[in-house]
UniProtKB/TrEMBL annotation, chain A:
One of its GO terms (biological process) is respiratory electron transport chain. Its main location: membrane. Keywords: Cell membrane, Membrane, Transmembrane, Transmembrane helix. Pfam families: Ni_hydr_CYTB (PF01292). This is Cytochrome b561 bacterial/Ni-hydrogenase domain-containing protein. GO terms for cellular component: plasma membrane. PANTHER family: CYTOCHROME YDHU-RELATED, NI/FE-HYDROGENASE 1 B-TYPE CYTOCHROME SUBUNIT. InterPro entries: Cyt_b561_bac/Ni-Hgenase (IPR011577), Di-haem_cyt_TM (IPR016174), Hydrogenase_cytochrome (IPR051542). GO terms for molecular function: electron transfer activity; heme binding. The chain crosses the membrane at residues 26-50, 132-150, 200-224, 244-265. It comes from Phyllobacterium brassicacearum. It is a multi-pass membrane protein. It is found in: Cell membrane. Residues 23-278 form the Cytochrome b561 bacterial/Ni-hydrogenase domain.
TrEMBL record, chain B:
PANTHER family: BLL0505 PROTEIN (PTHR43032:SF2), PROTEIN-METHIONINE-SULFOXIDE REDUCTASE (PTHR43032). This is Molybdopterin-binding protein. Residues 91-234 form the Oxidoreductase molybdopterin-binding domain. InterPro entries: OxRdtase_Mopterin-bd_dom (IPR000572), OxRdtase_Mopterin-bd_sf (IPR036374). Pfam families: Oxidored_molyb. CDD domains: bact_SO_family_Moco (cd02108).
Length: 294, 257
């Protein structure tokens, strides 16, 4: 596959060779960065919308803590002269003052579910939050459809994302998990392809979480409910869909955090260059690597 | 060590970026051009939903077992003013619904007149723009029947609902609640003028004596305390000119999402 010639056994003169290879097509790069833009604004405007009614329910209806039991709620309670932020998950109540339930807005501790630094706009304004959310939701869906069509037509999914049989064996997965845990990432020829944990994470986000977040979003729309009533049956009601929408958003945030940490740890400039110019650098070790069983 | 430095630099960098972004975001939010562009999405939503509902599908109807134990009252729960107080005292016996504007025969209908017309009962879900939902049972007369009685004048495009409640106290009266829908929703079978809720006369907190139900849109479209229905070709001349109390305050006129 490579043109690296067999070196002598004198390793002193054999340096690793840097090879640039074309990793990301234009379509992948453009849709990736548009997705960054869309998801950032969707998250911030989504949290603004959530703040208008910071409780989550399961089922068809759900309006207030009593008598409709919510299983997650973020609120503020009076605590002497001041207020206290309380996040409740089931029967578990946590004091989250400063971040959730009560946080500083204009220098004053105010009751608000998510803090002003993560919502758009920073102040409470549901109408504006909705305007931003729906604009970027359309943008995100159109961008996503372009990506899906490209991925199918160009063989991107089959070639780059679907794990090979060998990648899914328990032994191989265990090996990769232990390598990742020690922050040892594939090098050389092995880095030409995504590893199986990467593939599974990308496939999970692209084919499960992102479609789920779009469908649960549509399930919250009374208009789309009339058009696609089966959405209500699939998700068990509008309030369940709202909860799943929130869980999917949380999973996406978790994914993005891990994704960014991995980018930083596995060669930030190389990774960034490949997502901007398309080219990723491989360090090809001379022949001696072969004897290591790689 | 290398990792720590990278991480620390990353955290500092993102902190600076976040502060800059935040101020930047609020500036963007308040920029008129940005708002005009973002608002285009509303037409896209309306156009898409209308394209996908040529057969005018019904909103889901539920069974009595699905109903919310308590239906949350939102917005005004008791309109102010002597006139409403007087109507309430007589249990709305003196109340009359006015239908005027671009109609051939302006109408004055009492509650008894409305109850004498064919009724429709539906158990539907009420979705508030805030995110909560409640399921209740509504009985009323289809708006289409009332509009047919009045007969539309050529050019009429919207039904405007003028309400008894002033939701925001203002000197110029612009806090008066009003709403509007187009003729597609006006003639939808589930668009009713409800006088009964959960088997009883509509309570004051829920909009007595009459409220609109427009089941494929969000709660703020379901005007309570309806006093007058005006047929218009445009709502430019009404209060803020956006077709509703909340619309004048930045919310979408088409609340199907």
């Amino acid at each position: 596959m490579t043109s690296v010639t067999t070196g002598t056994s004198d390793t002193g003169t054999a340096k690793p060779k840097k090879v640039l290879f074309y990793r990301h097509s234009v379509a992948v790069r453009v849709t990736h960065w548009l997705n960054v833009l869309c998801l950032s604004f969707l998250l911030m405007s989504g949290l603004q919308i959530f703040n208008a009614h910071p409780s989550l329910y399961w089922g068809q209806y759900g309006a207030d803590a009593l008598p409709d039991p919510s299983f997650i709620s973020i609120g503020a309670v009076q605590d002497g002269d001041t207020i206290k932020g309380v996040t409740r998950i089931g029967s578990l109540s946590l004091n989250t003052t400063g971040v959730l339930g009560a946080s500083t807005e204009d220098g004053e501790l105010s009751p608000r579910a998510f803090p002003s630094w993560i919502t758009i706009p920073s102040y409470q304004d549901l109408a504006t939050g909705r305007r931003w959310h729906f604009f970027f939701a359309w943008f995100f869906v159109i961008n996503g459809l372009v990506y899906l069509l490209y991925g199918l037509a160009a063989g991107h999914f089959r070639r780059d994302l679907v794990p090979s049989k060998g990648q899914l064996t328990p032994k191989h997965l265990a090996h990769e998990i232990s390598e990742h845990a020690r922050l040892r990432f594939p090098k050389g020829e092995e880095a030409r392809h995504y590893n199986s944990l990467q593939k599974l994470a990308y496939v999970g986000v692209i084919f499960i979480i992102l479609p789920l977040i779009v469908l649960t979003g549509l399930t919250m729309s009374p208009g789309f409910n009339a058009i696609f009533p089966w959405l209500l049956d699939v998700f068990g009601g509008r309030q369940s869909a709202r909860t799943i929408h929130f869980i999917c958003a949380s999973l996406l945030v978790a994914f993005v955090i891990v994704h960014i940490v991995m980018v930083l740890l596995s060669g930030v400039w190389n990774n960034l260059r490949s997502m901007i110019t398309g080219y990723y650098a491989l360090k090809i070790e001379p022949e001696k690597d072969k004897s290591n069983g790689l | 060590m290398g990792f720590d430095l990278t991480r620390r630099r990353f955290l500092i960098g993102s902190g600076v970026a976040a502060t800059g972004l935040l101020t930047g975001c609020d500036a963007l939010v308040e920029n008129a051009t940005v708002n005009d562009v973002l608002q285009k999405a509303e037409s896209l939503t309306l156009g898409t939903q209308r394209l996908l509902m040529p057969h005018q599908p019904l909103a889901r109807e539920y069974t009595e077992a699905d109903m919310s134990p308590v239906f949350k009252a939102n917005g005004t729960s008791q309109p102010d003013g002597e006139e409403y107080a007087r109507l309430m005292e007589s249990n709305f016996a003196d109340w009359k619904l006015t239908v005027n504007g671009m109609v051939q025969r302006p109408l004055e209908l009492s509650l008894a007149d409305l109850k004498a017309m064919a009724s429709r009962t539906q158990i539907t879900r009420h979705d508030c723009v805030e995110g909560w939902s409640a399921i209740g049972k509504w009985t009323g007369v289809q708006l289409g029947l009332v509009l047919e009685k009045a007969g539309l004048a050529p050019g009429a495009r919207f039904a405007v609902f003028h309400c008894a409640d002033e939701y925001e106290k203002t000197l110029d009266g612009s806090g008066q609640y009003y709403e509007s829908i187009d003729l597609v929703d006006a003639w939808h079978p589930q668009t009713i003028l409800a006088y009964s809720m959960n088997g009883k006369d509509l309570e004051v907190a829920h909009g007595a004596p009459l409220r609109l139900r427009v089941e494929r849109q969000l709660g703020y479209k379901h005007a309570k305390y309806v006093m007058r229905i005006e047929l218009v070709d445009s709502f430019k001349g009404l209060w803020g000119g956006k077709g509703g109390f909340w619309e004048d305050r930045g919310y979408e006129w088409y609340a199907g999402i």
